[in-house]
Amino acid sequence: MRRKLFIYLILTLLPLAGASAQDVLEVKRVSLDQLVSFLRKEVSPRIYYVRSDEEQSSFTVSAPREQFLDAAIAELGSKGYVTSRFDSSIFILHSKAIQSSLPDGYFESGNTLAANDDGLQRFLADQNNIVTFQNKVYEIGEPSAGKSGKVTVSGHVRDVSSGEPLVGVAVYDDKTGIYTVTDASGYYRVMLPVGDNKLSFSGYSLEDMQLTLKVFDEGGLDVVMKEKVTSLSGAIVSADAISHHRNASLGLEKIRLNTAAKIPSAFGETDIIKAVLTLPGVKSVGEASSGFNVRGGSADQNLILFNDGTIYYPSHMFGIFSSFNPDVISEMELYKSSIPAEFGGRISSVLDVHGRGGNLNKFTGSLGLGLLTSRIHLEGPLAKGRTSFILGARTTYSNWMLRVLPATSEYHGGTADFSDINASISHKVNDSNSLHAYAYWSRDDFAFQSKTSFKYSNLTASVKWRSHFSSNHDMTAVVGYDRYRSGTSDKETLGMIWNPIFQGNANLSYSINIGIRQAYAKATFHSTLNDAHKLTYGAQATYYMVNPGEKIPMEDNPFMEPVYLDHEKGLEPALFASDTWTVNSRLILDGGLRLSGFYAAGDRKFYGAPELRISGKYSLQDNLSLKAGINTLRQNIHLISNSSAISPMDTWRLSSGRIRPQSGWQAATGAYWTVAGGKVDLSAEAYYKRMNHTLDYKSGSILIMNPDIADALVETYGKAYGVEIMAKKTVGKLTGWVSYTYSRSRLREKGDRGVETINRGEWYNAPYDKPHDFKLTGNYKFTHRYSMSMNIDYSTGRPVTVPIGWYKYGDGMRIAYSDRNTHRIPDYFRLDLAVNIEPSHYLRQLTHMSVTIGVYNVTGRKNAYSVFFYNSDPSSMMGSSLSGHMLSVFACPIPYINLNLKF
Amino acid sequence: MKAKRYIKLISAFWAFAMMATSCIYPYVPDIESKSGLFVVEGDILIGEVSRISLSCVYEFASNIDREKDPKAYVSIESEDGKVYTDKILGSDHSIDMSGAPDNVRYRLVIDRPSNGHHYQSDWKEVQSAAAMDELGYSLVQTEYDNIGAVAISVGMRGTEGGSRYFRLSYDEIWEYHSSHRAVYRYYMGSVVPFTGGENTYYCWKRESSSQIMLFSTEGQSQNRYEIEFNAIMRNDNRLQEVYYTKVYLQALDEDGYRYWRNTQESTGQRGDLLAPIPSSMRGNISCQEDPDEMIYGYISAARRVYKELYIDNNNTRFYTPPKDDAIYTPEYVEPSMWQTRYTRDNMRPYTLETAWTGDEYFTWLPARCVDCTQYGGTKSKPEGWPRPEI
Prior knowledge:
The complex is a heterodimer. Chain A contains ten helices and 56 strands. Chain A is mainly β. The radius of gyration of chain A is 31 Å and the shape is globular. The two termini of chain A are 27 Å apart. Chain B is mostly beta strands. In chain B, strands 20-9-8-5-6-7-4-2-21 form a nine-stranded mixed β-sheet, with no helix packed on it. In chain B, strands 13, 16, 17, 19 and 23 form a five-stranded antiparallel β-sheet that branches. Chain B has a three-stranded parallel β-sheet with strand order 3-22-10, with no helix packed on it. Classes of the chains: A mainly beta, B mainly beta. At the A-B interface, helix 8, helix 9, strand 49, strand 50 and strand 54 of A face helix 1, strand 1, strand 4, strand 12 and strand 18 of B.
């Protein structure tokens, strides 16, 4: 392509070189460099320009020689370039002009700045505290302050184009070991010694910045960073590498949305939950299953937060899509081991998903078109620079596609419908205070067949107040309300169950509804006591109202009456405090305490216990660190399930007089080594985990609409252990990670119920126990426009309870099953490939379209979801008519295409 | 128009994809079958003969019929010290409980000399009998075709304060006939006429419900139910002549209901995405020598009630012959080929015809046309059958 352009240019320029003054000069489709070169030759040698890194525009100018410069300036102007003249020199800059003189009366106007002054005065004022480029020495405080020792420097890090806060940007100094990370509002705070300092800012997929500071006193320093577009082979240290060696957290994984977007998923839509599943130590029971399992914990032991609201069912369409609209997501953090003291309520992990704040500067949006879903989002300023909004919506049209299935299809009459809406408003009250309001709603409605349908819905709404009391003390306070509702409607009749050829009298039709409502308030304070201690403390309270079930007759039934199980209520208060103690540049210790309690209102029972969060890091070298930690956790809301995957039929119960809180502890250690000049992070983490009072079900127990649910459950002990080895590369043309995990997760019934005891009281495999797990997720960027993604997932098959024989009983053939989870389905393997095409980087273009074309499960492997036997000939009473089968969810390659349009 | 065509194309593609991707495939897991586990089936039925079957779990490949354990001793003990002993009837142990009272608890006791083990069920209270109000039938539409079916329904009510868990079961006997009435039969190398009731035109077939039919009135305002529990397609030969059903209703305690329900659900598992994980549930029988021995079966004590029903097609005219019945033309078979056609081709004599020459010859038809036993029936007419003339 370049060669063709060059030849075309030569052919175009050669005749022009010899053109006379009277001739018309003409250039066609030349680059900026070529245009300036031509202008220097033909018009004036004193033309200076700064080419934007993203510039890929081509220029075409045709005019008589004396008018050619003006025509070229006009053409440059149409592509966003501003031309300034000073004496006989001409300066060409993108989006900004050279100010060759101060405004009239500048010196008389003092330091006051008119609120509506968008001109040079504002520009100059802004330069004092907003860092936009590195080649400058920034002064913090007044030289006359006369301070010594260390002072606090704080500020916000924002995106250069949208003004959105950037979360998780590492702010550090290599020499002194100073390190912090921006919070959800993009805020950072560091203690710097008075005098000359270097401060680096590094975030995933962002251009690194290294600033030179002259610090005289405490003060603010806001920084804007831009997305890394061109550094295909940059030799910079990754943000992950910095994070590994500068904090004491174990098992912390961060994924930004643009990373998740490169990971192929079943129907092409960017999926945060599927991205989480590519991480070591995270597993699921099957492809179309909601939820995930972290380090041997069950799915309900993960706290999934979206803008502080709890998401109880994080998937759409029984697990095919995640509940999170990728257009409004910024990044997510998964805490697998070192869970900060400010989080509690689950004993395995915390998945904290951050929504984006909305563009403060201009209205933008995006449109996504997939083969099963579509989505749209809009964002922009309500008050420029102060208030922004973001609005996203998503829906599927798979429903009407299912209607075209033939009547003989197993899914005929089925439905699969979902939609979700996100909305948020952020308002900057002043430099120290900001308010944020978030709302999220989702709805799913699906049925495998016409007679039974499922539905569930998530709703979260919260208001957050962020305040910086002083340069070393800030607060985040949030109040919110979450609601989760699920249910099933069953139009089945007994006649249909017993004899499927006719409808029968429909006196069994009912709907069952289950729900959770919770109101919460939380205040978190961050305080930098000195350069060695960073304190986090606060309080949290959550009030739960759980509807364990209500059964409503759907059709006229003279005998059936609605049944309402007693609602459960409980209050979960907590106080927490933690300190990050930077002993020296090599040793960092984190210590946290969470005093959590739970009051079960129904039984008037109170449970309380301290939770410890301790971890430490010691760096043997700048690029080699060791970490260790232990934490304890408690959980008071429990998923009651006897299915492999989370089902909308599953009910949730609170701790009560008969159901004790789950508790657990995890000890972990890890080694982190950054190699290849900072491009590759190697890590190995090992953990051992114990879980107490986890709940399993008695064989044959009825869990739905059971008023005495405790009678149907048994308490189990759990133990899980494993080693996770990962190599991760986040910079350069090739990015991605490869990991291997060996882990086990086993359970044992706590009590002795004689012959009823699960597997005779011996340890048995948890349903998500998959010892060997290999994952590879990679993206190779060939050019700015083309990249290719690959995902490989291999794991041992999950444990299942299998048929071991047959017997005659009740005038029919019945199946005898093994002990619980003693066998395994076949190993799982999947390869996904995708090609990502970004057609243009033209900054002035109104719309930017990207296309993802991929194939999920390229090899078409029939991965088993379940294994079962059934009698293929019901009239037969012979064992030979029983045959083994497996259910495979995605049993062939699934091609997909996804269009994303940004405007 | 073009867009519409594309939409149709995409729809068809995804419809296909949805069908193709989520599929059930034959799969033979590497499972070591576990045979020999003890299975005890039956209930303590007060007021009638209790039949207890002893069998075991078989390997999947096995087609062994129910294993008999004739040396086992089966008895029922009552809490007041009475012991009711068994008689072997076929493969079952039968214990006459016709005079047993309702107001004591009972348990099943099994001694197996074959392994030296003694087994006992838990003590069980007799679940009060429910009342069956009516047993009726009506014509109903079927879901997938327009043939229609005869739905059989029962109305029942539990006793005041009694159990709200029930199990329904039924026995069926029906009289049907073959499509052609043969006058002759092949016997010892000859074709001889049928005499008396020897014909293979009318047969009787017996079946019992193989479905586990459970229901509960828990959560209902009244302890009663009206259920269409069975349906017979109008082209089913059950309706061809006379159909008889005897429907039993038995009250269960909650544990027994859970056991039967688990057995029902575990057997019907198809590996659905959201289905409960199947499991075998221990019943209420335990081995005295080895408490960890897994024993399948749940023993309930109950007084059953039953109702009977006849549907005579001569009156109702419900039966609709299948449209796709093949028509066979009787064929002449050389006497020398009789043996061959009888054994190799499964043909049977039909009628004696006279040729234009005056010669007589026997025509033959496939056995399924003239021999009703080919459909599983027998010539054993039930006692008291309403058509004594057959």
